[in-house]
Automatic annotation (TrEMBL):
It comes from Cylindrodendrum hubeiense. It holds the Pfam family adh_short. Belongs to the short-chain dehydrogenases/reductases (SDR) family. It comes from the Eukaryota. This is Uncharacterized protein.
Length: 297
């Protein structure tokens, strides 16, 4: 396991950078805003409601529903207009479990009611759209930038909160898929993911008190915030998944997930992404050869 440590000096280079965060008015997002500001960054927070107190520092709030594309567009426009650039984006906004796929409630016709997609709209589609806009803005700068996605340790296991698990599995797959796509496009944009275990946040009401009562240790939101800042400033990290439990940081993508799949795949068979690259290269070669063949004919 690739455990690592974060010291204050490791985060110093966030000073002067411009960071967009979604869901920065509570929980992990709130702790992240405070952490980024304390490090000297300018922060633009997109959330459905402002935080209780205005923080000190270069801070801008933009009312944003991440499930609404126009709201996200306005968030990024405001950040660029206010600070002239965007260096890092933390796709953090999310909500707690709320859909029962075993429900038997019916409508007036006696038909089963459709399950709510609210969590998926916020915690999955919202992350995807936030990252998509981030790529659009970061690619306009020669030095690019980085995207950090706040996932969950629930993406690594079975979880009976099905809508929450689905969203977190989805953002894990989305973030992992972006890495080779950006590399193939030669865009200088890094993507990293966080996978925190139980954290003092607003995912469930009174979460810390409830978990304390059953003897489950809860880590403060600030430790996740520090990991987000670290992934922004450490330019050597790209495509990493950082598991965070009890304030300990462990990189698991390159240390665990990819090696585990490679052991299943074997050394004599290509990965799916390698196959896609080969197909792309073959198509390019065929397109280049076509004019020459036509000329000879």
């Amino acid at each position: 396991m690739a455990e690592f440590f974060i010291e204050d000096k490791d985060l110093a280079s966030l000073k002067g950078k411009v960071v967009i965060i979604t869901g920065g008015s509570s929980g992990i997002g709130l702790a992240s805003v405070d952490t980024f500001l304390s490090l000297g960054a300018s922060v633009v927070n997109g959330d459905i409601q402002p935080r209780a107190e205005q923080p000190a520092g270069a801070y801008t709030f933009v009312e944003t529903n991440v499930s609404v594309w126009a709201d996200l567009v306005a968030l990024f426009k405001k950040a660029k207009e206010t600070y002239g650039r965007i260096d890092h984006v933390f796709a953090n906004a999310g909500v707690g479990p709320r859909t029962d796929y075993l429900a038997t409630e019916v409508d007036d016709n006696g038909d089963l009611k459709e399950p709510s997609s609210l969590l998926l709209d916020i915690s999955l589609k919202g992350v995807i759209n936030t990252a998509t806009l981030a790529i659009n803005y970061l690619r306009q700068q020669p030095e690019g930038g980085s995207i950090v996605i706040n996932g969950s340790s629930t993406a690594l296991q079975r979880l009976r909160a099905v809508d929450y698990a689905t969203a977190k599995h989805g953002v894990l797959g989305f973030g992992r898929g972006l890495v080779p796509a950006l590399q193939a496009a030669n865009l200088p944009i890094r993507v990293n993911l966080l996978a925190p275990a139980w954290t003092d946040s607003s995912v469930l009401p009174n979460l810390k008190a409830m978990l304390d009562s059953i003897g489950v240790e809860v880590q403060p939101a600030s430790v996740v915030a520090r990991a987000a800042a670290f992934l922004m400033v450490d330019t050597s990290r790209n495509g990493h998944v950082v598991y965070i439990q009890r304030g300990r940081y462990t990189e698991i993508e390159e240390a665990v997930l990819l090696p585990a799949f490679q052991s299943i795949l074997g050394d004599d068979y290509p990965s799916e992404d390698e196959v896609l690259q080969r197909l792309h290269d073959a198509a390019v070669a065929a397109a280049a050869a076509a004019p020459a063949a036509e000329a000879e004919a």
